[in-house]
Amino acid sequence: MEMTISFPGGARVDARFGSFTVKTDQPPQGGGEGSAPTPFATFLASLGTCAGIYVLGFCRQRDLPTEGIRLTQRLNVDRATGMVDQVELDIHVPPGFPEKYHSALVRSAEQCAVKKLIESPPRFEIRTVAGA
User: Fold this and answer.
1) pLDDT band at 131, cuts 50/70/90?
2) Which CATH superfamily includes the segment(s) 38-119?
3) Which residue among 43, 88, 113, 130 is least crowded, i.e. fewest CB within 10 A of its CB?
């Protein structure tokens, strides 16, 4: 997959791929307009939504209703480094959701490709290319 990253103005940075554009911005205190999530917030949202798609798929495969199911994601930040040191993800199910599927929902969310990428990070190669 190839993405084109562009700078449409201000502190906005967009990523285009296929027919999609993911827009990002910085908050006003960071020199932006706050018109879109920051790149890091977008990345963090990909964790929760990725886990969510696996939970959704699990339920669909078993004809389980998804009404009332939601995920809550929280971050723990190391005060010394300012870096995220733990991501907590809770899968909330409505009363009456079959208890026999609770641990299976967790296992399905753990299959998230974004989570797996973080656990086994790729190598990065960053370079400049003249004559764009």
Assistant:
1) confident
2) K homology (KH) domain (3.30.300.20)
3) 130
